[in-house]
């Protein structure tokens, strides 16, 4: 039994001049997310979308994200803040339906 | 490419598609039997392949892909017609990204610029003459997008005597021209010089090279052909230190993976079907096509910012390996390199952000700023390269070969006497110096320096454009008002 309370879609900017290692930051988040929360590629299955931008310009395309909960990462420290944010709100995520694969 | 909504080849599919071409390529006086695996050409293919590989990477797809305005499919941005200033900005960013990951010219921008320029010119010719060039072009564009193809944008004719117009040349072939008109197409003859990435391309898009008058109407033609069409021959250009790629070992190459290439492309009585002809003797549009292509292509020199990123990284590393990174003058030189490099970036972003929509619907760069950007590119990479050589030290050009380092007799002395900091292997020090040599004097200097000077038009071409576009009268008017001059 593996209950998934929240799927978070990851959308990167293109990475022209990133100020930090965006892929490493996402991996760090993945490893430190609380049980029941996971990062996914498919945004249509996601209850939240994390924009991973290499700088404060955060030029990643927002098309298709209307109506979704969107969080933005523009630095390494944002990764820590994001994990804390998810942990702090983990109980409220438990009731967020995130698609047909809510429970596996 | 199995998904109906996505038209992206993988890097592996791209390589395989090149193997199916039957290109006639000559190098060192002999026909190249296997173009894709030739050790001198291969690094340039690797660089183009990066334009495919990155398009599949989540962390780069936002820059590397776009949505086709004709099919709605996800396509490689190099096949895209710009639909907004955001598209133009992302084009500049994509150029920097690819330059920063390859350290060289990745060759695919020229085709993108040709496609975008033709999307506007074919539309404008049709408006005037009720021709069908734009329909032909859009059919062709969809073929390019659906198959994710690399296009060589071929503009530069050999030009012969520069003081003479095309029709005045002693040999008319010095400008590519139509030699025969048939029911089903035309026959052309001539050549295009300095063709970047030509033998890594699936298609070749030909454009006239200068503004033309009525007497030159046979030279005012634009068309596209498969790169292996009958009658096309490629003669590879030499690059400084090119045969190092044939040597054993890897250190002396500098860049282990990537490179660029140029070729002279000869069209010896080549047939072009009408469906592939996009301009035919509408000489008054040749200047527009040249200007619009050139302005896009001057923006494309965003790539040099990326190569500059690599060179700055190499210079800083060399300073650290030499134990000199804390010297104030070295720090200051690194700052200066960054200052120049980011100033270049300002230009390519600005001309994109200040772009506008043309009647065809295509978004076009701010041409004044695109020319200012390219003018900067004719200068700053040289200064950045000078500073990199300053930091690297003379060893960059006096290093013995890798074979000497591997020699059981003298190798130990080289390892001993050419060590910098004790904790850095001598080989690593050699590798970073060879990379700086590669970019500033070797094969990659073709792209980083001389191409920066002459590619997309030599410096004077930009100065003419700058002079034409600044509003000098307005500047004078305000100056006179402010100091009390009454007219």
Can you describe what's shown?
The complex is a heterodimer of chains A (104) and B (487). With 104 residues, chain A is of the alpha/beta class. Helices cover 27% and strands 20% of the residues of chain A. Chain A is built from three helices and four strands, in the order βαβββαα. A four-stranded parallel beta sheet of chain A has the order 2-1-3-4, covered by helices on one side. In chain A, helix 1 links the parallel strand 1 and strand 2 (37-40). In chain A, helix 1 runs parallel beside helix 2. By secondary structure, chain B is of the alpha+beta class. Chain B is built from 18 helices and 15 strands. Chain B has helices spanning 11-19, 42-53, 61-64, 85-102, 109-129, 133-147, 286-299, 303-322, 328-353, 367-377, 380-392, 395-398, 402-406, 411-417, 426-440, 445-454, 459-469, 472-482, and strands spanning 6-7, 25-27, 30-31, 65-67, 74-76, 151-154, 177-181, 185-196, 203-206, 221-226, 232-236, 262-273, 277-280, 356-357, 363-364. In chain B, strand 2 and strand 3 (30-31) form a beta hairpin. Chain B is globular, with a radius of gyration of 24 Å. The chains are: A alpha/beta (104), B alpha+beta (487). At the A-B interface, strand 1 of A face helix 3 and helix 4 of B.
């Amino acid at each position: 039994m593996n209950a998934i309370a929240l799927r978070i879609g990851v959308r990167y900017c293109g990475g022209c001049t990133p100020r930090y290692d965006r892929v490493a930051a996402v991996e760090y988040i993945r490893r430190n997310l609380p049980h029941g929360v996971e990062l996914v590629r498919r945004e249509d299955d996601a209850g939240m979308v994390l924009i991973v931008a290499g700088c404060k310009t955060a030029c990643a395309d927002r098309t298709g994200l209307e109506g979704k909960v969107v969080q933005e990462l523009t630095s390494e420290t944002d990764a820590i803040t994001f994990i804390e944010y998810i942990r702090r709100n983990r109980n409220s995520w438990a009731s967020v339906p995130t698609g047909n694969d809510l429970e596996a | 490419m199995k998904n109906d909504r996505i038209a992206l080849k993988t890097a592996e599919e791209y390589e395989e598609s090149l193997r199916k071409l039957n290109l006639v390529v000559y190098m060192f006086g002999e026909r190249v039997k296997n173009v894709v695996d030739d050790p001198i050409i291969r690094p340039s293919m690797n660089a183009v392949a990066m334009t495919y590989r990155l398009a599949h990477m989540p962390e780069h797809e936002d820059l590397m892909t776009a949505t086709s305005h004709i099919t709605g499919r996800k396509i490689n941005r190099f096949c895209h017609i710009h639909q907004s200033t955001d598209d133009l900005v992302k084009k500049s960013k994509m150029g920097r990204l690819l330059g920063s990951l390859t350290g060289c010219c990745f060759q695919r921008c020229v085709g993108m610029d040709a496609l975008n320029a033709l999307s506007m010119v074919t539309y404008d010719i049709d408006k005037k003459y009720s021709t069908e060039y734009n329909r032909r072009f859009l059919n062709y564009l969809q073929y390019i997008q659906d198959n994710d193809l690399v296009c060589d944008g071929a503009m530069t004719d050999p030009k012969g005597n520069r003081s003479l117009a095309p029709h005045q040349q002693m040999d008319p072939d010095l400008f590519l021209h139509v030699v025969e008109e048939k029911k089903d197409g035309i026959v052309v003859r001539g050549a295009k010089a300095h063709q970047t990435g030509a033998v890594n391309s699936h298609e070749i898009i030909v454009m006239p090279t200068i503004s033309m008058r009525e007497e030159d109407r046979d030279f005012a033609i634009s068309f596209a052909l498969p790169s292996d069409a009958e009658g096309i021959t490629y003669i590879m250009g030499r690059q400084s230190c090119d045969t190092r790629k044939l040597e054993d070992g890897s250190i002396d190459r500098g860049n282990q993976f990537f490179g660029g290439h140029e070729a002279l492309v000869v069209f010896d009585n080549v047939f072009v079907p009408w469906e592939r002809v996009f301009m035919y003797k509408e000489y008054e549009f040749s200047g527009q096509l040249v200007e619009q292509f050139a302005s896009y292509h001057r923006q494309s020199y965003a790539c040099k910012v990326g190569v500059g990123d690599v060179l700055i990284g190499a210079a800083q590393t060399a300073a650290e390996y030499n134990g000199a990174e804390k010297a104030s003058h070295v720090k200051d030189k690194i700052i200066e390199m960054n200052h120049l490099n980011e100033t270049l970036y300002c230009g390519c972003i600005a001309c994109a952000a200040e772009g506008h929509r043309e009647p065809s619907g295509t978004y076009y760069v701010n041409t004044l700023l695109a020319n200012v950007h390219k003018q900067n590119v004719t200068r700053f990479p040289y200064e950045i390269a000078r500073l990199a050589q300053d930091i690297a030290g003379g060893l960059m050009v006096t290093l013995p070969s890798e074979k000497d380092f591997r020699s059981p007799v003298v190798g130990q002395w080289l390892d001993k006497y050419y060590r910098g900091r004790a904790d850095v292997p001598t080989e690593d020090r050699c590798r970073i110096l060879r990379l700086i040599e590669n970019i500033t004097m070797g094969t990659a200097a073709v792209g980083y320096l001389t191409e920066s000077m002459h590619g997309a038009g030599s410096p004077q071409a930009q100065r003419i454009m700058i002079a034409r576009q600044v509003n000098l009268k307005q500047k004078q008017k305000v100056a006179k008002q402010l100091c009390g001059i009454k007219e």
